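Q: I have 205 residues here and want to know how they pack in 3D. Can you give me a structure?
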Amino acid sequence: MRAGAMPSVSTPYASDRRMVMQMAPPASYRGRAKPARERAQAYLTLCRDAGAEARIERDLRALSVALTSSMGSRIRALLLVGSYARGDGGATSNGAYNDFDLIAIVARDDAAIRTELVRFGEEWTARLGVHVEIWPFEERKLAHIPPTLFWLDVSLGGVRVLAGDHRVEEHLHAITPRDVPLSECGRLLANRAVGLAISNLEGLR
C-alpha cells in the first residue's frame, strides 16, 4: 500500500447504501432538517443538568464574543458543531467534558486566518480546560457544501449559530443521507478500526 493511501475496507454494506441510510434518525428525519430557529430549544448535553448547561452556555458565549471581537468583519458567523450542537455532549460538575468543535465562516480562508484561529483555540483550551478547535470555512463555499459524513451531521441538525449572521444556516441543511458516497463510510470504519487497534496496543504496555 502506498504511503497515505486509505486501506481497503470490506463491509456487509459494500454493495449498497444501507450503511449511509443508517446515519439518519429513522423516526424523526423527514427530508431536510429545519434551521435551529424553527426547532425547539435544544439541550447541549445528555445529562441536561441545569448547572452544567448554564456553565457551558456561559463559556461558549464568552468564547464567541472574544473571537468575533478579535476578528471583526473577517468572520461572518461562528458555528458550534459536534456533540454539543447535537445535544449529546458530556458534562461534569465544572461544565463541559467533550471538545468544543467550531466552524468560523470567513470571507477568505488563508494562512493568516488559520494561524489566528489555532492560536485562539490554544488560548481558550487553556482557559476553559477543554479542547477548543476552530476550522475556517469560506462564505462563498456555503452554496456547495461537500457531501461528507461531517456535513451530513451538520445538515441533520448538528449545528448551532453562536454569533454572526444566522442566515448562513439556511445553506447548511441541503445534504441528505443519499448524497453521501459509500467511500465516506469506508473512511469512517478505517478511522475507528485504527483507533481500536491503537487502544489495544496501549493496553499491552
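Q: Anything worth noting?
A: The helical segments are 18-21, 50-71, 83-86, 111-128, 149-155, 182-203. The beta strands are 75-81, 91-92, 95-96, 100-106, 132-138, 159-164.
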